[in-house]
Specification:
Length: 175
Amino acid sequence: MRLIALAGLPGTGKSTLARALAARLDAPLLDKDAVRAALFRAEELEHSAAQDDLVMACIHRVVEFLARQGRARAVVLDGRTYSRRAQVEALRALAERLGTPLALIECTAAPEVARARLAHDVAHAAHPAANRTPELHERLRRAAEPIEGPKLVLATDAEPPEALLARALAFVDAS
């Protein structure tokens, strides 16, 4: 099984690429925001670090289950920024525990592009995370730690989606 994780700040195109990868690979897509919405009622949604960590722990357990079952050739993870060193370390530890390759893909976009995407999503209620705003992007950008180690960086505002998908698939195949 291959483990594919999308990283990047809000509005950088992680979810768009994650959906395309999951569809092309016929792989389960484990989206942090969708899992959170399934676990908690609307009034219980906090979008806190503690709730994020709990949801990601659940997702990691699902990945472990799928690996043991041996039926998924790949699993795609979406929704976490991986902007903290400990988040990346936990992801790499999961892949190591499972003895599976990790393809970590970091999506980037110019701040003004990401902010415009987020403002559009807020105006159209196009994303399940209500806290996903231009202000959140800026706060996370200021606090972000660089992702160390092997990864593919894709500037989602510099290439068409088909080219980004092709580059991501080539990276996954090489991982």
